[in-house]
Amino acid sequence: MSAPAARPLRVVVADDQASVREGLVLMLDLLPDIDVVGSAANGQQTLEQVAAHRPDAVLLDLHMPVLDGTETTRRLTAEHPEAAVVVLTTYADDTSVLDTLRAGARAYLTKDADRLHIARTLHSAAAGLSVLDPKVQATLLAAASGAQAQSPQPSQPSQPSQSPQPSQSPQSTAADAAGSAGRPLPDGLTRREAEILTLMARGMTNTEIAAALFLSGNTVKTHINRVFTKTCSRDRVAAARYARDHGLD
To answer: Where exactly are the structural domains of the chain?
Structure first.
């Protein structure tokens, strides 16, 4: 007996340009593993469509009337954390990217992404993974390099043994412990929840976790509450013990 087919991913598409919006709806609806359940022309309509249809993911333009993409993302993350926000826009400047990621977006793509790339990103974001377009990654790296170049240099060279290595950043170590290579996670934890659990177990505060993962404080709180529920943890101490017991610290 063959296994039942997986349920198509339910998606809401939001873009203020009718031709773009309708094209995305048609393009995605042709894929067997995606079901477009609603579309919207502005941020307020997006909130209404998500409330009405409870999608798995929202494909969202950044610059829209009534509510822009960043504020819409912030509202969606607070009110509908189960819906993964994927930004699809022509803007890839560092301010737009950082503002949207901090608001709670799980993925950020530019509009030259093809249909399969968009579809894969929607599925990944709905599974709790973060995805950044290569152009967006380059923008963030350039911004980080510029900030580093402008920062004051110490009068004495730092000792090699005291210099943090890139592989030891909170994001990378959390991703490693969370099984970024595809290791199954216990008790239905998503990759994002496992990342946050790992950082909690290492003693990081909500504010520090939000800064490390480019999330809003409300988003971190929502994920932590879901971690507590899934791991049957009453507090952060119990969650840290769970993380150690399951190799997520």
So the answer is: 9-138, 167-245
